[in-house]
Fold this protein.
Amino acid sequence: DQEGNISDEAWQKLDEADAIIFGSPTYMGGPSWQFKKFADASSKAWFGRKWQDKVFGGFTNSASLNGDKQVTLIALQTLASQHGGLWVSLGLLPANTKSAQRTDVNNLGGSVGLLVQTPSDAGVDEMLSGDLATAKLYGQRV
C-alpha cells in the first residue's frame, strides 16, 4: 500500500510465487521509503530462506531521463541476491543510434533491469509506448 505495508496474504503469495519482480520509483537517488520498508520487512523471509533460488527481476521509473535509476536497480538486485535469488537481466539491446526514438524498445539503454521515464507532470496513461513495450518484453523474459 501507500505506506509500504504488505498483508499476510501478500507475503504468502510472494513465498509461493515462482518469480518476484521488484518495482520502485527512483526518488532522491534510490528506492522509495515504502520499498525500503518492504525490504526491511522481508528479513523474515530471508531468515527462513523462503525465497532461496527464486527468480527475480526489477524495474524503476523516475521523472528524469537518468535520475540515477541504475542505483535503484542495483538496490533491488542486491535485495534479491541477499535472499539467494536468481536475477534476470533485461536482455535487450539499447536503442542508441542517431535514428533512435523515445518510442523504441529499451530507449534508455538498461541492462540490469527495466528503466522507464515519465515526466513529473504526466498522467498514468501517458507512459511512452517504447517503455511499455520494453516492460512487456521484460515481464515475458522473467
Summary: The radius of gyration is 15 Å. The longest helix spans residues 69-82. The beta strands are 19-27, 30-31, 55-62, 86-87, 114-117. The first strand starts at residue 19 and ends at 27.
